[in-house]
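Q: What structure does this chain adopt?
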Amino acid sequence: MKIIVRVPGSCGELVQGYWQEQPFLITCPIDWYSTVCVEDTMPQRIVCGEKAKQALKKTLAYLGESSFPFTLTLSSQIPKEKGMASSSADIGAVVIAVAAAFQITLAPQEVAHIAASIEPTDGVFCPGLVMINYRTGQCLHTYQSVPPMQVVIFDTGDTMNTAAYHRQFDDKERLYGSYAWQACAYLKKNYTAADIGKAATCSAMLHQQVNYHADVPILLRIGQKYGSCGIVIGHSGTVMGLLFSKHTIQSVNIAALTACVQQQTQLQVVGTAAIISGGWQLEIEDIHATTI
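A:
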């Protein structure tokens, strides 16, 4: 038996704030993945970090299983402690893979509740774009499919622990995050890449009152020069990105853009990724594959 599960990371959050007294974020999944492989090999091994091990333990308890008689290994191409949902992707992939090892398919909401019991969670394992209460894992709203978009990702060079961030900034985020409805208003029915850019930019600028980054307005200005439809940030992270429609980015000189950013800011170039729908990819015994 061989089971492979892939869950995407994110480039920050399109929107983060408070809605009806609930903390929420709107996911920004990208095509960089955490991958979990489960095999019935000997000797049995568990090769993953502490949070992933917690996910394994909690999933077994949820399923009513007392042991995990398989080998589990986790690998990831998502940078850690940057606000790119690396832990959420790791945890989600483990939960899904462990359930699959017992021939059980969990609903995204079940995965989210298990993940949120470990730490505040991103909803990258939920299909599409979702508004999720990152503390409870409750999915508050699911948006339509994602228009073709790319994001050029930059980083301050620092690291940020999500739990530590919330301890430090939750009071200010509750105060200013109540205005996040202004950003969500752009995500009406039949929204476009331009609308997503406006929503993300609105949320990023509101967040400046919570945790100010001097490079945000500079990056936004450079992006406008190169045809970007907006800026997205890691509200509890160190990454920020310029959003482009797929059509626009085809005519952008990425080398010139990144050189301009490096000349005018202290930001480091991380790379370019596609904005995608969230969810997971599941392969079993290398025979067939499904996407949820």
